[in-house]
Amino acid sequence: MPLVLRPGEDDDATRMVEIERTAFADNKLTPFLFPGPFPADALEKRAEGLVAQRQNDPTTRWVKVVDTDTDELVAYAKWNIMNTPKDPEPGRQEFGPGCNLDMCKEYFGGIYRKRAELMGGKAYCLLDLLQTDPKYQGRGAGGMLIQWGLDMADQLRIPAYLESSPNAHGLYYKYGFKDIGQFTLDPKWNYGDADGTIYFMIRDVPEPK
């Protein structure tokens, strides 16, 4: 089952959302942030939102990994190539039906504020989303998507930046990222043994060889 890297397309959005839903099912924090109930068209609306982001933001790049035996999309990433310095846009205040709105505002708002503090006014490549179908984890698909963005960052001579969950933290270390900050959701939200920590990571421009 050879895996290949290809540009993402609008028609991939539905499959991307399916992978996102499956991948987040193993995140213990998700049921607290998004307890439901959800409308029947929730996945469709999410896919439409991703397409709108891609069409309206010229910095957005979708990259996908495809299993060539089945032609199935098995992993994807959303990179934002911000080679012109600018301040991060304000974080969103709506998170869709079924969310715990106040908890989402505190969690995602904390992430956006820290991003603005760390990267405001800078040029960089942002790894905004990366998800792999659990059936394909451990096959290197995630690494292919990370490397695509690192190659782009190296061509532009700008750093690469991301925000990592605890589960992915070690993977990003392997690709040269280092911690530059941390945010932990207030335990007042009673999220049990879930890990409410996010790591802010950067991979600097390599020195010329």
UniProtKB/TrEMBL annotation:
Superkingdom of this protein's organism: Eukaryota
Annotated coiled-coil segments of the chain: none
Database matches in InterPro entries: Acyl_CoA_acyltransferase (IPR016181), GNAT_dom (IPR000182), Trichothecene_AcTrans (IPR052523)
CDD domains the UniProt entry points to: NAT_SF
Domain N-acetyltransferase: start-end pairs: 3-206
Molecular function GO terms recorded: acyltransferase activity, transferring groups other than amino-acyl groups
Protein name (database record): N-acetyltransferase domain-containing protein
